[in-house]
Amino acid sequence: MRYLIIFLFIAQCNTYKPLVDTAGRSGTFNEAKAQEITNDMQHCKQLADENSGVLSNFGYMWKNNTGETKFESIYKKCMNNRGHSVVN
Q1: Residue 46, exposed/middle/buried by CB under 10 A (0-12, 13-18, 19+)?
Q2: CA-to-CA distance for 59 and 77, rounded, in angstroms?
Q3: Is-contact 73 16, C-beta < 8 A?
Q4: Which end of the chain is more exposed for a tag (fewer CB within 10 A), N or C?
């Protein structure tokens, strides 16, 4: 049973896909950034992949007690900094 839980955790680490509100602006920019969303998602996913791993994800979850992995945190921050409104 323990190995099943560990396997499921490892399999789900980098499957996060942010929910982005593309209708509005984040307030940071004067113009909408939704036209760049596909490119930004690819770059942010790659950045999060390169800077997180199974152990760092687990350590981040343990330390912050939020249920959010390091991968998700980097991904969200990257998308927000590129001007997208990340809902989830």
Answers
A1: exposed
A2: 18
A3: no
A4: N
Higher pLDDT, 28 or 76: 76
36: Cβ–Cβ under 8 A, 6 or more apart, which residues?
82
The three-class DSSP label of residue 29 is coil
The structural domains of the chain, with segments of one domain joined by +, span: 35-88
Q: pTM for the full model?
A: 0.73
Six token digits for residue 33: 């950034």
Rounded Cα distance between 6 and 20, Å, is: 29
Rounded-to-integer distance, Cα 38 and Cα 41, Å: 5
- Position 43 scores a pLDDT of 94
